[in-house]
Every structure is written in structure tokens, then in C-alpha cells.
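Complex record, two chains
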Amino acid sequence: MLSAARADDRDLYAMVEEFFRSSFATDNELITEAVRRMLAAGGKRLRPRFTLLAAEAAGGRAEDHLRLAAFMELIHVATLIHDDVVDGAVTRRGVNATAVDFGNRISVLAGDYLFAWIFKNVTADYERPIPHILSSTLADITDGEVLQLKALADPDTTLAAYVEIAAKKTASLFAASAECGALAAGAGPFAVKALREFGTAYGIAFQMRDDLLDLTADEATLGKPVGNDLRERKMTVPLVLALAGGDREFRSAVERFFAAEDERPEDVAAIVAGIGAHGGLVKTEAVLAGYVERAKQALAPLGNAPALAELTALADALL
Amino acid sequence: MLSAARADDRDLYAMVEEFFRSSFATDNELITEAVRRMLAAGGKRLRPRFTLLAAEAAGGRAEDHLRLAAFMELIHVATLIHDDVVDGAVTRRGVNATAVDFGNRISVLAGDYLFAWIFKNVTADYERPIPHILSSTLADITDGEVLQLKALADPDTTLAAYVEIAAKKTASLFAASAECGALAAGAGPFAVKALREFGTAYGIAFQMRDDLLDLTADEATLGKPVGNDLRERKMTVPLVLALAGGDREFRSAVERFFAAEDERPEDVAAIVAGIGAHGGLVKTEAVLAGYVERAKQALAPLGNAPALAELTALADALL
């Protein structure tokens, strides 16, 4: 029984997976295949789990909100398909990016179709304000990605500018996932706001952890090359904070690295070492811990129901 | 006064232009600029005019539905921005394609943002079923484009397959534009259905006229090279109908043309001549006239209000 299966967080993951396996298909075969491939490549399904946990925290049952939860993951998948076109990515979660196997043309259209298909279903199935929240979220994600492109290789990027980008491109979907789960389960405005705030703070911390992993994890764990963000000239938070130390020599080294046409592996390694030497990793851990704390404080007034404890545990896992 | 300005169809165009000039801006400057540039490059604003005329036909005032009408043009603009990425287009309406001036990365994101911005506004401003119609329409447009990509260079494409693609990628937005204008002005189900049917038949005829112009108009009129569809290996209706004649030599010539890496201008000219010689142009005119007739028949039961006469005139203008 599904309700009995809600003994631990692991089972929420299994419920989402089962829902995708049994219930996801669009009218376009090629696009269904591209999405299934992307889903099969992995992922922790954090966004749908946020929706289900928020629904449970509001007194709902996870199994009643699987469809809404699935839309959150699919918005994420659609943005990933377009990101890989935008970034010219070769791999995603360790397998070929959609654009590599299907071509950029199909990738652009597959992402568009998936966005449209999600909104078509959401506008049919859900009352206000859920369709508005999801479309506003997609606007935020894309706006954040445009801001990120504009900030590429800009050594003057501030922590505030970084946080604005992370809040839009990453945290907005976590916030919406939690908010919509709460709304769908009939939570009151106070709980909805708290769960949304949790999602925002969690999402910013999540992006910071992602930035750190790009520098410190190995390729097998990441499913993409180490230092990939640096190669893409992204102003990640460890780099922003390392540069904020004000060392001119390091700044010059970063500028030369970004200006180079073809960086060698040792050039990437030198910048990674420089980020560490100038406190970028340590300072990021501290800022990240602040957002995890903020996330947990947002939930504190709601009590300690099991679903809230699971959300708190997810936040702690970022430390 | 706006209401006095509704003496002829030309003024509806002016109202839409004025609305874009005075009232269009998104939160992202770069994207607002890209969209304004695309709007400034021209276009007949047929889709918003459909919305306004349908609203008038339902007893509404055009000036009360300018915002809804503008969304129809913006959906069109967003699809054009992505089309140009997908097609690798260099020019659009005689000026540089967005992707040329802004790059493919910004173009993908600009289209995404514009779609999201439209849905964000539509879900805030309009009741069911308008948000659902617009998102379903975008799903149809994209689905049609994927089907078109799959049919590229396929000499076995049938007229029925062509019509399915044109109905989805082109006619669906004309149908939605008319349908939503009628709905917003409070039309009854009979009138809504008739106006939607008009839009569908008009849109298929419109795509057929577009296909013909690609073969017969000059580059200055088109704002893009003559025979562009052929170079892109698109199975346009004149080509489909010319091949349906069953001439094996012509079919072989088309297959060789599509298989060639770099076609010379004289190769394009030879296929254009072959399409004419095998009745492709004449047969297309006949099929197109059938859809114009179908469009007019859809409106006939609604009477002969001025707005309906203008819609009929727009259909006749395709002949």
C-alpha cells in the first residue's frame, strides 16, 4: 500500500519514480523518449519530494499529489534540456546530453514542447494560483540564466549578484515546489509562506553546494568533468568569494584563464588551487551554512511533523 | 478616440502597434530589447487582429482586448526566435535574426523567458479556459515543428501529413487567437467554435500561401532568400503536390538535391522550375482556395457584422 510505504524519505523517491514509469507520456513520441532518457539518467527528484513533503506537512497525503510533484521535476528536466543546448554540454548526469543524441534543433523544440505540455496540464488540472506560480517560476529561472550569461567571466561579480542569480535560476523552483505542495494540500497562508521561504533558502544553499562539488568531487560522482563551471567561465560562489579577498595576482590569473581560447587541464587545476588558497572553499561553506540555518528557521514555527523533519534533514545534508 | 479609429482594418494594426510601443516591457532588459527589435522588424499583426476582430464580432470593443491580442503576437514572436535558432536562420523579416545579433544561447533563453512571461501574465489576468488554450496551442506549435523536422527531405510526405503539420505549427495560433478573442468578449459556444474553425482553415491556407511565396516572390518582398524552404529541405505543399504527380525523374532530381551537401543557386532554380512544370503551383492554388472557402463557410452562419466582413476579406486576400 502506498500510504504504508511512507515510512521514510527513500520511499517518496520510489513513488515519484513509479509515477514517471507508469504515468508519464506526451503526445509526441520523440519528445517522450527524450524526456524518459533524461529521467532514466538519474537525479534525486528533490523538487517533487519537496512538493510531496510540503503536502504532507500541510496534512495531505503524498500519493494524492504525485502528478503535481512530477510537473516540478519535468520543469527541471525541460530547463536542463535547454541548458545543455545553451552550454553546449556533451554529458549530463554521466550520459550524453539530449542535444548530443537528438541534435540542438530537437532539443530546443523538445524543451519548448515539454514546457507547453506541463502548462497545458497544469492549467487543466489546478486552480489559481498554481498555474501562475509555475509560469512565474519559469520566468525567474530563465531570467536568472540570462543574468548568469551576462555575468560570465566577470571578476567584479559580487556575492549579492551571485545570490540573485542563484535565487532565480535554482531556488525559485525549490520554492515553488514546496509552495505548490502546501497550496494543493490546503495549507494556510502562514505555512505556505514558510515552506516557500524554506525552498528559497535551501535552493541557494543547494546551488552553493553544487558549485563546491564542481571543484572538489571527482568526474565519476559528478557525471561531468571537474572544473566544468570554470571552463564555462561561470562566476561560481567559491570563485566570487576567493576574488573578494582582493589578491591582485589571483585576479590577474583568473582574467588570463577566462581570456584564453583553449585552457589546458593544468590551467584549470591552477585556478582550482587558487580558489582554495584564497579561502573560496572555506568562505563558501560558511555562507552555505547560513542559508541552511535560514531554511531551518523558516520551518521552525510550523512544528516538528515527520515531513518537516525530513525537509530539515534534506537541508542538513547540504552541510 | 480609439473607438472612432475603428473605421477600417488598417487602424486595428495601428492600435496593436501603439499598444506594443506604449505597454510592452518585461523585467529583463536584454529580452525586452530582443523582442522590441523583432517587433520593429515588421509583420502584419494578423494574429492580434484576429483576436480583436473576433472580440468585435462577439459584441466587444477592440480596445478592451488589446492586451490579450498582444499575447498572441508575442507567442508568435517567441516561436520565431526559437525557429531561427532551430533553422540556423541568418535573416528574419529582412533584418538579422535574433540568434545572429544575440547568439544562440540568449535566443534560446529569450524565447523561454518570453513564453514564461506570457503565461505568467495570462494566468494572472484571464480566467479558464484561456490560459489552457494558449498553452495547448504552444504544445501544438512545437509538436508541429518536430513533425516538420522529422519530415524534412522526405519525398513520401503526403498532403494529409503536410496539412497536419500546417494545422499544428501555423493554424493552431490563428485558431486560438480568434477563439480567445471571442471567449474574452463573452461569445457563446456556437460563435466561439465557428471563429476557431475559421482560424484553423485560414491558418492552413496562410501556410500554403507562405510556401508559394517562398518559390515565387523576390528576396526584397520576402525578407529572406527565395527557395529558402527548399534549402532547408522542407516538404512544402507545392513540392508535395508536384511529387504526387508521380514523375520518377523529378523525384530523383529532388532526392539528389536534398542529398547534396552544398546546393548551387542553379540547383535551387531547377527544382523551383520542376515544381512549376509538375503542377505544384497550380494544384496548391486550388487546395488553398478550398481552405479559404472552408474558412468563409465557418463564419457564414454568424451573419455579416463588419468584423466578420473584415475576417472574410483577410481570407480572400490569401487568394
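Note: Confidence is low (pLDDT under 50) at residues 1-5 of chain B.
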